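Could someone model flavin-adenine dinucleotide with this protein?
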Amino acid sequence: MKSQNHKSIVVGAGIAGLAAAVRLRAAGHEVVVYDQNNWPGGKLAEYSSEGYRFDMGPSLFTMPQLIEELFDLAQVEIQPYFQYSKEETVCRYYFEDGTRFNAYADRNRYIQEACKTFDVDAQTLRKYLQRNAFKYNRTKSLFLEKSLHRLKTYLSIDTIKGILAMPRLDMLSSLDQVNRRTFKDPRLVQLFNRYATYNGSTPYRAPGIMSLIPHLEMDLGTFFPRGGMVSIPRAVHQLAIDIGVRFELSTKVDEIVCDSGHVVGVRAGERIERADHVVCNADMYSAYKNLMPRVDAPQKAMNQERSSSGIIFYWGIQRSFPELQLHNIFFAQDYQREFDWIAEGGEWHNDPTVYLNITSKKEAADAPAGCENWFVMINVPAKADEDWEERVAIARKAVIQKLSRLLNCDLAALIAVENVLTPPLIQSRTSSHLGALYGSASNDRMAAFFRHPNFHSTIDGLYFCGGSVHPGGGIPLCLLSGKIVAEIIASKT
Ligand SMILES: Cc1cc2nc3c(=O)[nH]c(=O)nc-3n(C[C@H](O)[C@H](O)[C@H](O)COP(=O)(O)OP(=O)(O)OC[C@H]3O[C@@H](n4cnc5c(N)ncnc54)[C@H](O)[C@@H]3O)c2cc1C
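Reply:
Sure, complex below.
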């Protein structure tokens, strides 16, 4: 570890805050992390009851190399802290017309299965997947790995290549238009439209470049961390402690203190702790409103459309279902109507797409013998003026009916343990504005540019990481935001 010339405070022990803390400590800073919760990980939380264990937040883990990188930087062997394995089946899909589809990780097997199930030929599918890979490889450097708000970014060869590739990135079409142009089978269009929800957007407005997301899942792979998703923040938290980061958990920061264009430190209650740099991992909207009301907030970022939220049921199920996988999707019949409600303020409709995650398929200890731990989620709008108690009751009934029908069982009778997470609860537990899962949505082609930068333009020493800022939400992008912040700080010190 290098000498400690600088002191950095990170507000929030979400996955991005933890990553930033490890990187800054590895660069020799004295680092302190504050979190209002008594656990590290923010949205990556856990709930246990009567022998069932549930991951409460994320369930899909991609790009594990970003976790590996933290251990490499700290020169610590990862194995004792964190282990994971690659999944052979990415997801099992259920359509209302009776179609079932297992999305295998192996490319050839996937294509073979898809050609048997859908009206598509291997060449069309292969070309689509190749184009997704092209979009990812050409733009990752510009849109994911660097600050979009520094001149330096635009002077690199990778960025220039990305800009030159723009006409082939489908920026002017929606994801739905790209998928409808490619596939004539509406089920396949629906399947590939779903990827817009990976950052809480609607496929009917999100730009076609978003078809790079299936590349992350299908080519780079999906993984399962031993011990469940909470083992990700726990491993990074333990690493941070072991290399000398100080944690102040159960401590709410009341103010990010700034003076005359410089950051001074943070105030928790009466106590002010000073630092050279403050990295805000709290949702940026809530941070401007509550922690630094006198600091100029970029209005475009503040007014950006929020990503979708979710209602999540955690159900202990007194039976096992051999046909189900770790990840399962039960599609709505009318996808467009579902997104009319989620993203356009339309009417609630009673047939939501249901995502079902069962970690006891991988970790037997997550449920009693012969039982399963079901994480059951539907997408809903991130909204304050909604009667969420009533919505939960209606959604519960609709989900139980749908799953009972498609799995041929009486689901209500199998639920032994129950808990539920709603948008207001997500907001109160993590400060996420309106309970948005992924910060701001990518519902127009300029969304990436309007997202909040990783630094403040006029307050020296004030930085931002996490799902509500560039490059966006989801674990991999949050880890990348921690990396971008640490690199910007390193370039200035
Ligand atoms: C139900 C659900 C499902 C999801 N599914 C997936 C998935 O499958 N895959 C995926 O990649 N992503 C998924 N996501 C998104 C992912 O969880 C987030 O993008 C990511 O975890 C956000 O991390 P973050 O670093 O922004 O911090 P957050 O997790 O938002 O944490 C912010 C932290 O800041 C702390 N904080 C805020 N204000 C203060 C303050 N004043 N003082 C002290 N501490 C403060 C909070 O307590 C919190 O711990 C899901 C999210 C949810 C909720």
